[in-house]
């Protein structure tokens, strides 16, 4: 009996250890918990729930992704999020979705999602998707409508519209709020800004070059 139980327990423990880094948001403890951030100042890992008695059908539906975002900006792209902030019904359910509209020649610039793996589907257009691993290897592919891609959690990636038409992709995340760090904004557009001498040393250029780039990102 014991000789069977021991390897079994070891296997369970090994599976637990292997699975824990892959886990994203914690599992819910009830059917749903529609977010009601206004009702409480209490901070929890997520948002407090609306009382079940006031849940309505509309809590489970959203028009957040129904319209293209304006691509009239420096990157010629726009990310529209259906995450827990725009769609409170997602609270505690561990997933969310974005639409990414990219004009020809536009880019969703290099960025990472610290809390989620991403699964993307190109619906229109021709998109170059690039991923950089922690070993600094660049992986990329040009995707057409109907083709999909996966961005492992936390890796830097971008999407660039190679085509002549507007591109649209839908991305799903295993987090209700995947978070995003957009590399150029993080480095050159933080408030307050990172000292220019730090960035000059980092990028091996003069501070004027750093200041020029900062000026593009509101600093
Ligand atoms: C994205 O599109 C929305 C809706 O058109 C707009 O309000 C927002 O300013 C756009 N964001 C950027 C960065 O252009």
Automatic annotation (TrEMBL):
Keywords: Apoplast, Disulfide bond, Manganese, Metal-binding, Secreted, Signal. Gene3D superfamilies: Jelly Rolls. Residues 1-24 form the signal peptide. Disulfide bonds join 33-49. It is found in: Secreted, Extracellular space, Apoplast. Residues 63-211 form the Cupin type-1 domain. Oxalate binds at residues 98, 108, 113. InterPro entries: Cupin_1, Germin, RmlC-like_jellyroll, RmlC_Cupin_sf. GO terms for cellular component: apoplast. Mn(2+) binds at residues 111, 113, 157. GO terms for molecular function: manganese ion binding. Belongs to the germin family. This is Germin-like protein. It comes from Phoenix dactylifera (Date palm). The gene is LOC120109180.
